[in-house]
């Protein structure tokens, strides 16, 4: 940079500094960007599991493998049926053809990405879809999260018109602030109407995981106060089977 003779760089530097500070002040006054819980989001840590599911379902043949009775979609609470809830999963598997599309840590945007990226191919037409998602949507507003749940339901219905979607209430968790706990309750209130659609029903599982005082039944959760104990999965299976019997 060439400064005016005798002027040095002080004046120019001060002007530039003033402009920078002004821009910082203006930017601080701007509202934070609005986060959309429906934006599809991929996550690298589940890429291997995602790829395996896509590969397996791409070759699914209902005439050979059978119609999927229950397709489970959601976050770690769904995925952990295969480990923490494996005994209950096997009991369920003895009576139903079931498949697990759960991914630990998923929010609504992650699920939307997966459903659009091969995890719900046209070759599968499940009879029931158990959907449990929203516990990891803390960064989003209740309204945005509820809309995203509705978008997921819409995607599922478009892909499998005859499927009955079992919209499951978000379970309480003990590792969060009171404010976030309230947000989960508000989210359940906001998504409940989606369970009154012709192709979707509301399954209030959360009420079975809370006591009369509104607190968590800790025996149904593991040490994390987020994930379920084997007893929690037992209760879930029993209540789900009761619900399914209404359709037989």
Number of domains: 2
> Low-confidence parts, pLDDT < 50 over ≥5 residues?
1-10, 16-28
In what order do the strands lie side by side in the largest sheet? 2-1-3-4-5
The helix tally amounts to: 9
The CATH superfamily of the largest domain is known as SGNH hydrolase
Mean pLDDT across every amino acid position: 90
Q: Quick one: overall form?
A: globular
* CATH fold group of the largest domain: Rossmann fold
Cα Rg? 24 Å
CATH architecture of the largest domain: 3-Layer(aba) Sandwich
Percent of residues in helices: 40-55%
Structure overview:
It is a single chain. With 248 residues, the chain is of the alpha/beta class. The protein folds into two domains: 1-30; 37-247, 3-Layer(aba) Sandwich (Rossmann fold), CATH 3.40.50. It has helices at 10-29, 47-58, 62-65, 76-79, 86-95, 108-116, 142-159, 178-191, 230-244; strands spanning 70-74, 98-102, 128-132, 164-168, 200-203. Strands 2-1-3-4-5 form a five-stranded parallel sheet. Helix 7 (142-159) links the parallel strand 3 (128-132) and strand 4 (164-168).
């Amino acid at each position: 940079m060439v400064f005016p003779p005798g002027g040095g760089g002080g004046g120019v530097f001060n002007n530039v500094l003033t402009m920078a500070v002004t821009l910082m002040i203006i930017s601080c006054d701007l509202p934070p960007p609005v986060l959309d819980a429906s934006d599809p989001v991929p996550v690298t840590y589940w890429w291997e599991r995602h790829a395996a599911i896509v590969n397996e379902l791409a070759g699914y043949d209902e005439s050979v493998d059978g119609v999927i009775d229950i397709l489970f979609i959601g976050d770690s609470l769904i995925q952990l049926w295969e480990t923490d809830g494996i005994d209950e999963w096997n009991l369920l598997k003895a009576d139903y053809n079931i498949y697990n599309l759960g991914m630990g840590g998923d929010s609504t945007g992650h699920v939307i990405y997966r459903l659009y990226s091969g995890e719900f191919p046209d070759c599968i037409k499940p009879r029931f879809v158990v959907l449990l998602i929203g516990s990891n949507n803390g960064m989003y507003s209740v309204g945005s999260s509820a809309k995203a749940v509705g978008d997921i339901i819409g995607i599922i219905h478009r892909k499998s018109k005859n499927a009955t979607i079992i919209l499951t209430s978000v379970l309480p968790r003990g590792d969060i602030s009171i404010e976030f706990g309230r947000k989960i309750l508000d989210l359940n209130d906001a998504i409940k109407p989606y369970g009154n659609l012709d192709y979707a029903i509301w399954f209030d599982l959360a009420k079975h995981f809370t006591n009369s005082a509104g607190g968590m039944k800790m025996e149904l959760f593991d040490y994390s106060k987020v994930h379920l104990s084997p007893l929690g999965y037992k209760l879930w299976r029993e209540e789900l089977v009761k619900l399914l019997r209404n359709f037989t």
